[in-house]
Amino acid sequence: MIIKDVVANLSVAEGGSFTADYAVSVAAALEAHLTGIAFIYDPVVPVAATGYIPPEVIDTQQRDSQDAAKAAIDRFAAAAARNGIAAEPTMLPASFAGAGEQFGLIARRFDLAIVGQAEPDKAAVEELIAESALFESGRPVIVVPYIQKAPLKLDRVMVCWDGSRPAARAIADAMPLLERAGQVEVVIVANEPGKQDEIPGADMGQHLARHGLKVNINRIVGGHIDVADALLSHAADSSADFIVMGGYGHSRLREFVLGGVTRAILLSMTAPVLMSH
C-alpha cells in the first residue's frame, strides 16, 4: 500500500489544533497530499417554554460555528505552509449527529484518515467522527491523543498482534509507516482467550522481517488485568511512539458498537494509534 492522499478532521474546539499539527507531520513524512475538513455545525437551540426562539440566538450560534471552522482552517493552512506540504483546506456544513457519517463517507476517497481522540467532558462529536472513520470508511485511521504535542515519531512502533483479520489488515495498512520505523515490536497478549497468536509458517515477526524491518517479538502476560490495560501499560513502559492494532466492533441495527479493547484504547491512549477494521 502507498499512502499519497490523506484526510484529517480538524477539530473546531478551542485548543483542538493537535490533530491538524500531527496530520501535517504525517503528510510531510509520507510526501502525501493532505485535505483538512472543518465542519460548520448547525445551531443547537433548546426548545423554549414559549416555543419561540429569537432569531438572533440562532444567528449567533451560526456565526460562532463559522468563526470556529475558519479559525481551524487558518491554523491548518499555516501549519501546512510551514512544512511545505500540498494541502487543501475545506469547510463543510454538518449537524452534530451527522458529522460522523459524513466524514466516514468522505474518508473512503483517501488512503488514510486522521482524527483526534475525544477529550473528556467535551462534545461527543469527535468520538462519533473517529468511530465512523474506523467502521464506515474502509480505510486505515490514525487516532491522535488530545495530549499529543510532538509530530510523527516512529523510533519505537508497537504492533498489537492476535492473529485476527483486523490486526492483519492494520499491519498491512501501516506498512508505509512501519518501513520508516527505527524498531518494530510485535506484542502478543499471551492470555487473550479465543485467539491464535501464531500460525505455523505464517509467523508475523518473520513476515515483517522479510520486508526488511527490524522486529522484536514480545509475549506479555496480562495476569489479572484486561487486554487493553496490558497493552497500554506495555506501551508506556516501552516508550512506544506509535501503536498499530486492529479495530474491533460489530453492527447493531446499522450502528457500530465498539469492542471492549478498542473502546478502552480510544479512551485511554497516550500515543497515536493506527487502527483498521
What does this structure look like?
Helices cover 37% and strands 24% of the residues. The chain has a 10-stranded mixed β-sheet, sandwiched between helices. Strands 10-11 form a two-stranded antiparallel sheet. The chain starts with a strand and ends with a strand.
Chart the SSEs and their pairings.
Layout: E1 5-9, H1 18-30, E2 33-41, H2 55-83, E3 87-94, H3 99-107, E4 112-116, H4 125-136, E5 141-144, E6 156-160, H5 165-173, H6 175-178, E7 183-189, H7 204-209, E8 215-220, H8 227-237, E9 242-246, E10 249-252, E11 255-258, H9 260-268, E12 273-276
Parallel strand pairs: 1-2, 1-4, 2-3, 4-5, 6-7, 6-9, 7-8, 9-12
Antiparallel strand pairs: 5-12, 10-11
Helix pairs in contact: 1-2, 3-4, 8-9
Specify the CATH homologous superfamily of the largest domain: HUPs
Give the end-to-end Cα distance, rounded to a whole number of Å: 16 Å
Mean pLDDT: 89
* CATH-scheme architecture of the largest domain: 3-Layer(aba) Sandwich
Low-confidence stretches: none
CATH topology of the largest domain: Rossmann fold
Overall outline: globular
User: Strand pairing plus helix content: what structural class?
Assistant: alpha/beta
> Helical amount among residues, as a percent range?
25-40%
What would you report as the Rg, rounded to the nearest angstrom?
20 Å
Strand ordering within the main sheet: 3-2-1-4-5-12-9-6-7-8
Q: How would you sum up the major sheet?
A: 10 strands, mixed
Give the total of beta strands: 12
| SSE run | EHEHEHEHEEHHEHEHEEEHE
